[in-house]
Every structure is written in structure tokens, then in C-alpha cells.
Amino acid sequence: NVTPTLSNNSNTNTVNVNGEAENSTGRVSSGQNTGSGGRRPRGRPPGSKNRPKPPVVITKETPNALRSHILEVADGNDIVACISNFANVRHRGVSIHSGSGAVSNVTLRQPSGPNGMLVLPGRYELVSLSGAFLPPPSP
């Protein structure tokens, strides 16, 4: 048979009728001495590690998304005029990413050059041309 003890010390532990240690607040202690007078242990509790967040899934396409297009310019047509018309109709900015095929009577615009334009008559194979269509500014 266990009898509780009384004391004037506020940190006194007693034993209840079930044989469990009990502090002066009436709480049952776990039997482990924390060494800091009932304070909580430092650090994160077990099992509270940073878990990876689920991936973001895009459910619908936004109007300002970057899209790829393939333009085929017919023989004898001006490439710049065709691309410009395509962009104007769709209210988009343009930056070309790639191109291939034969061109003739090429006019190169060089704003930094003394004349600004270089005309190359004849037929040429287009080796590389690159860019992108840009969305209009957000409202």
C-alpha cells in the first residue's frame, strides 16, 4: 500500500494509488527526468521532418503561355512580311527559334552598319534562324 507524502516544496513528486509518479500539478510523469524541472525538450518532435511537397499540376493553359508554331512560306513570298502578318493577326510578339529551306534575293537589315541594309541576289540555303512568339503584355 502506497501513501502520498506532503511537502512545502512545489516540485515534489508523489506516488499515486496506481504506483505512478505524480508531480505537484497532479500530472503523471513519464518516469524520465528531463533535468530542467518539467520543461519541454529542445528541437523538433520525432516525425516532423520536412516532407517533399507534391508537384504543381497545371490544369488549364493560360492565354500568355509560350506556344510553338510552324510556318511554311510559299515560294516567292517575303518571309518577314509573312511572319509579321501572322503576329499582327494574333496580336503576338515574335522571336524566331529556327528555320530551314532555300531563300533567294535576301535583304539583311543591319541597324548598326553604315548603310543599314545588305542585298544579296541569288539563291541561298537557310542554315539557321531562331526565335519565339511572345505573348502580348498582360492587361
UniProtKB/TrEMBL annotation:
UniProt xrefs under CDD domains: DUF296
GO molecular function: DNA-binding transcription factor activity; minor groove of adenine-thymine-rich DNA binding
Gene3D superfamilies per record: Hypothetical protein, similar to alpha- acetolactate decarboxylase, domain 2
Native source organism of the sequence: Trifolium medium
UniProt superkingdom: Eukaryota
InterPro entries, A to Z: AHL15-29 (IPR014476), PPC_dom (IPR005175)
Sorted UniProt keywords: DNA-binding, Nucleus, Transcription, Transcription regulation
Protein name (database record): Putative DNA-binding protein ESCAROLA-like
Domain PPC: 63-139
Biased composition, class Polar residues, residue ranges: 21-33
UniProt-listed Pfam families: PCC
UniProt keyword Transcription, yes or no: yes
Biased composition (Low complexity): 1-18
Stretch list, region Disordered: 1-58
GO cellular component entries: nucleus
Signal peptide: none
